[in-house]
Design goal:
The chain has about 400 residues and is α/β, with parallel strands linked by helices. It has a single domain, classed as Aldolase class I (TIM Barrel, Alpha-Beta Barrel), CATH 3.20.20. It has 15 helices and 13 strands. It has an eight-stranded parallel beta barrel, surrounded by six helices. It has a three-stranded mixed β-sheet with strand order 6-8-7. Strand 1 and strand 2 form a beta hairpin. The radius of gyration is 19 Å and the shape is globular.
């Protein structure tokens, strides 16, 4: 058995060679007030790039106006390309690669804020937007597939090195995968094979678009291992979906995630549940509703390092595809553990939000480094204003 690779050593990801095996995960930035790239967004990603990560991930780049989570979010279109080019140039100047997370929010989309109808596997009420999502027709699904292909082409044009297809957190593809949400009785509902058609179709649409492009970029996906919700996506079904995605040959890696943005977001984040701060981010009556029933939405799970590792090991045992471990990775020991368990990359969110130069500090000072992140999760409600760490103030 070969020795585990050094997490700070170069690694290949599809056609890319990253300078190390660390990735800044996609965390919604709320720094695009006009739905276009700003200097603020560029600086948000330049800092972790200068701080040593192998690749940073821009989130969330919707594939269409209606696919955004809210009205200030970027969607991939010609007007966005020049700004994205400035962003990718800035990241490359720091020696890092940069990925665009692309996807369709589906039932998570705030239809009122977006100014257009949301889509879902079935007619679905979103309390944040106070609007019903439309049951997606076969034509709607075809349009979403085409939008993903166009988004990938825009990403290539803008200088991105990779795209990450969002198949998690009960966004559109994940909502189709969920037996709890997807109660359809047509060819997109019922069996897992039917429910997985959208996710598999999106991946292959992106792969074909990338392969036909003027240069090659990596294609990855963020996939829920489980929703953390009774009746939702389970490890067993998700593993089958992952095996199908591997067999289809459209992906260079999978980033393993968990939790539902609709029902149970804390299953992904772990640590403190900042109910007061979340309530304060909304206007009445949502503020009152959050205060009264928020504990059902923001359930508390104790934080520990590598908290998704046990679930992820089920996937590592069955898949040959490179895998990216996410969840509770803040120090060198945990990174080394991920490498020893056979994972190819590690993804970090809150730790890099608190401390963009964490990777350089780990490279310099080694095993004794401890992250400044306290897992208070008070950064989470800032996604409704301007995402930041409220403990350290970085990146500001």
């Amino acid at each position: 058995m070969s020795a585990a690779p050094d997490v700070l050593s170069p690694a290949t990801l599809g056609p890319l060679t990253l300078r190390n095996r660390t990735i800044k995960s996609a965390t919604f930035e709320a720094r695009t007030p006009n739905a276009l790239v700003t200097d603020d967004l560029i600086e948000y990603h330049r800092k972790p790039a200068a701080g040593g990560v192998g690749m940073t991930t821009v989130a969330y780049c919707a594939v269409s106006q209606g696919g955004r989570t809210e009205g200030n979010g970027i969607w991939m279109r010609p007007e966005a390309v020049p700004g994205f080019r400035r962003l990718t140039d800035a990241i490359h100047a720091e020696g890092a690669a940069v990925s665009a997370q692309i996807g369709h929010a589906g039932p998570v989309a705030n239809a009122r804020s977006n100014g257009t109808t949301a889509l879902a596997p079935v007619r679905f009420f979103n309390p944040i937007g106070m609007r019903f999502a439309k049951k997606a027709s076969a034509d709607d699904i075809d349009e979403v597939l085409a939008d993903h292909a166009k988004a990938a082409r825009f990403a290539v044009e803008a200088g991105f090195d990779a795209v990450e297809i969002h198949l998690g957190h009960n966004y559109l593809a994940s909502a189709f995968l969920s037996p709890l949400i997807n109660r359809r009785t047509d060819g997109f509902g019922g069996s897992l094979a039917n429910r997985a058609k959208v996710a598999r179709g999106l991946v292959m649409a992106v792969r074909r678009a990338v392969d036909q492009g003027p240069r090659q970029i990596a294609v990855t996906a963020k996939l829920n291992m489980s929703d953390g919700v009774r009746g939702g996506i389970s490890n067993e079904e998700s593993l089958i979906t992952a095996q199908w995605l591997e067999e289809d040959g459209g992906l260079d890696a999978i980033e393993l995630t968990a939790g539902s943005s609709l029902v149970n977001p804390m299953y992904l984040f772990r640590g403190d549940a900042p109910l007061k701060e979340f309530a304060g981010a909304f206007k009445p009556p949502l503020r009152w509703g959050m205060r009264m029933t928020g504990t059902k939405f923001l359930r508390e799970y104790p934080y520990k390092e590598a908290y998704l590792l046990n679930e992820a090991k089920l996937f590592r045992a069955e898949l040959k595809l490179p895998l990216i471990l996410l969840g509770g990775i803040t120090n060198r020991e945990t990174m080394d553990l991920a490498m020893a368990e056979g994972f190819d990359f590690v993804a970090m969110g809150r730790a890099l939000l608190a401390e963009p130069d964490l990777i350089n500090r780990i490279a310099r000072d080694g095993a004794g480094v401890r992250s400044a992140c306290t897992h208070c999760n008070k950064c989470m409600p800032t996604i409704y204003s301007r995402t930041r760490c409220v403990v350290t103030g970085a990146p500001d």
